[in-house]
């Protein structure tokens, strides 16, 4: 099993929003769907990535490492797609 790009994007959105509820509204998914995406990531990594507080979230050390990786992966994809020329024109 590997990390899916849309799961990584959801992870970044949840981190930036600070809660699953706020992220769900901004991402256009249910809170349950976002929770499933995070569960998949945690299953692949075999560790927790968020510490859940009553009204907020924080990252575990593994979550902090994942945030750096996820941002880099998403940035690289965005750059590639912006520069991709499907007709191979210069």
Topology record:
Layout: H1 5-17, H2 20-27, H3 31-45, E1 50-53, E2 56-59, H4 61-83
Antiparallel strand pairs: 1-2
Helix pairs in contact: 1-2, 1-3, 1-4, 2-3
Describe this structure in words.
With 90 residues, this protein is mainly alpha-helical. Helix content is 66%, strand content 9%. It contains 4 helices and 2 strands. It has helices at 5-17, 20-27, 31-45, 61-83, and strands at residues 50-53, 56-59. The chain has a two-stranded antiparallel sheet with strand order 1-2. Strand 1 and strand 2 (56-59) form a beta hairpin. It is globular. The termini are far apart. The mean pLDDT is 91.
Biggest sheet statistics = 2 strands, antiparallel
- Return residue spans where pLDDT drops below 50 for at least 5 consecutive residues: none
Q: Average pLDDT, to the nearest integer?
A: 91
**What separation lies between the terminal Cα atoms?**
37 Å
Query: Could you state the order of secondary-structure elements as H and E?
Result: HHHEEH
Oligomeric assembly: single chain
What best-fitting shape do the alpha-carbon axes yield? globular
- Count of alpha and pi helical runs: 4
Strand content: 5-15%
Rg over CA atoms: 15 Å
The strands making up the biggest β-sheet line up spatially as: 1-2
Q: Which structural category fits the helices and strands? A: mainly alpha
DSSP summary, beta strand count: 2
């Amino acid at each position: 099993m590997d990390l899916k790009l849309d799961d990584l994007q959801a992870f970044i959105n949840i981190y930036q929003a600070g809660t699953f509820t706020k992220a769900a509204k901004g991402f256009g998914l249910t809170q349950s769907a976002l929770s499933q995406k995070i569960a998949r990531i945690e299953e692949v990594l075999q560790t927790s990535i968020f510490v859940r507080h009553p009204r907020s979230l924080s990252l575990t050390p593994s979550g902090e490492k994942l945030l750096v990786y996820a941002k880099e992966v998403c940035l690289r994809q965005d750059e590639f797609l912006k520069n991709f020329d499907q007709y191979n024109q210069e």
